[in-house]
TrEMBL record:
Keywords: Methyltransferase, S-adenosyl-L-methionine, Transferase. Residues 93-149 form the O-methyltransferase dimerisation domain. This is Uncharacterized protein. Pfam families: Dimerisation (PF08100), Methyltransf_2 (PF00891). The keyword Ribonucleoprotein does not apply. PANTHER family: O-METHYLTRANSFERASE CICE, PUTATIVE (AFU_ORTHOLOGUE AFUA_4G14580)-RELATED. Transmembrane segments: none annotated. One of its GO terms (biological process) is methylation. The keyword Transferase applies.
Length: 465
């Protein structure tokens, strides 16, 4: 069987299997004309693992059948897709069309709400419609598809127009992350080649010498840049955008995997750089026999006190949870921790800086202390796992050829996020091998990895070296 036939068979058999399961249970898999809803989202979430090899095969079939010249020329212009999506968010199109209903709306009427050029808006909508984000139902008349409805803010157009800066608040966050990627992050991406070819910045591990600084013409690290008065729109967008990257089942990665219930009564869990303590909230509500400390910068901890008083009153007051200001690069003052916990922290720092705060934790650890890193892992795209086979959970089952080894990774945004982290702060997503090197340099070793289905992050369980 040729690779083309094999890929087509993966698609055909996979689709038949999903359809058969849906039919047996009395529902249909959502099609592009079915807008997002909790019910239809739940169906897609349930079948995400089964859909992954089908989607990966479709991507690979397109690459196989395409002539290199038009394929690469098109790829070189893909940047206009995120830019177009950012414009769509800025002109509130998904919510305008949500109110218009199934018949859709003429571009003149869509453009009238925000007083933009209707012809140019129509061209952008038509581009996105080629990828099934919007549908042109009549000349210059567009309506939402399932994909475009994912950007809806859940507010009336009147509400959005009255408070455009707060339009992302209370939403899923998808529109905010789409806007961030299509606007601020595009400036960073456009400066990546120049930054990497520079003999100084191309090798720098400093968060102030990344493509972000060149693209935004600043010397400030991105988080400080966010707090400048002229960047209030981005600052409003950013926390909502982070919510947009949160998986619907993200609590699973906190509660499952590591055997929290087996920790002795009163064991201390330290959530390092834990923000306002959302991770600890999940743990504390389930594992009440443990004690917890959330550490972060003073301003964040101040906000955390208000957050806990509102969401989980009594936990702080009774001493079950302590909220304490601490710079993770300073010596760690807690010396009796059973668990040091880091979620989405290592990918924010280059090896130079990650080694520093991991070493601080190693210095404060007791012989039985464990370090749990909850973060993404970049899969190698080859099938050779010999370098990591000795670590339980490190190697994943590979998909059959001709598919790339790990379809769930190839169709996700992990590798794109790695490029984004490089551009933003000279930091990175890491492979298992890169985690091994980083941890060894700071006195830790990987004991095992608790795996979760993509796009969930993974649990890396570490012990003292």
């Amino acid at each position: 069987m040729s690779s083309v036939e094999a890929l087509a068979q993966v698609i055909s058999n996979g689709v038949k299997d999903i359809q058969a399961q849906c039919t047996a249970r009395g529902f249909s898999y959502p099609t592009p004309d079915v807008v997002c809803s909790p019910e239809t989202d739940a169906i897609q979430n349930e079948f995400s693992s089964q859909a992954a090899p089908i989607i990966a095969a479709a991507y690979q079939l397109i690459a196989t059948l395409s002539h290199p010249q038009p394929y690469l020329l098109g790829m070189g212009l893909w940047g206009y897709f995120p830019a177009s999506l950012a414009y769509i968010d800025a002109t509130f199109v998904p919510d305008i069309l949500r109110e218009a209903g199934d018949k859709g709306l003429h571009v003149n009427d869509i453009a009238a709400a925000t007083k933009v050029h209707p012809g140019r808006l129509g061209r952008i909508l038509r581009l996105l419609a080629t990828r099934h984000v919007f549908e042109e139902v009549a000349p210059d008349v567009f309506r939402n598809t399932r994909l475009s409805s994912g950007m809806c803010l859940g507010k009336s157009v009147k509400e959005i127009l009255e408070n455009p800066l707060g339009r992302w608040d209370g939403s899923s966050g998808v529109a905010a992350i789409v806007s961030l990627n299509g606007h601020e992050n595009m400036k960073t991406a456009a400066s990546l080649t120049e930054t990497l070819l520079d003999p100084v910045t191309g090798f720098s591990e400093e968060p102030t010498e990344a493509a972000f600084q060149r693209g935004h013409r600043t010397r400030l690290p991105c988080y400080e840049w966010l707090e400048e008065p002229e960047n209030i729109i981005t600052l409003s967008k950013f926390p909502n955008a982070m919510r947009g990257t949160t998986h619907y089942n993200s609590d699973k990665v906190v509660n499952e995997g590591f055997e929290w219930a087996k920790l002795p009564e009163g064991s201390l869990v330290v959530d390092v750089a834990g923000g306002i303590g959302n991770l600890t909230m999940v743990l504390a509500s389930t594992h009440k026999h443990l004690r917890y400390v959330v550490q972060d910068r003073p301003a964040v901890i101040k906000a955390a006190h208000e957050h806990w008083a509102q969401k989980m009153p009594g936990y702080v007051e009774k001493g079950i949870v302590r909220l304490e200001p601490h710079d993770m690069f300073d010596p760690q003052y807690i010396r009796d921790a059973s668990i040091f916990l880091l979620r989405y922290t290592t990918h924010n720092w280059s090896n130079k800086y990650a080694t520093k705060f991991l070493t601080r934790l190693r210095e404060a650890a007791q012989p039985e202390t464990k370090l749990i890193i909850i973060d993404g892992i970049s899969d190698y795209l080859c099938r050779d796992t010999s370098s990591i086979d000795n670590i339980p959970g490190a190697a994943k089952a590979a998909a059959p050829e001709p598919l790339l080894a790990y379809p769930d990774s190839t169709i996700g945004w992990g590798y794109l996020m790695d490029m984004n982290m490089l551009g933003m702060m000279n930091c990175q997503e890491r492979t298992v091998g890169e985690f091994m090197t980083l941890l060894k340099a700071s006195g830790w070793k990987i004991e095992r990895i608790c795996r979760f289905e993509a796009p969930l992050p993974q649990q890396i369980i570490c012990t003292l070296l």
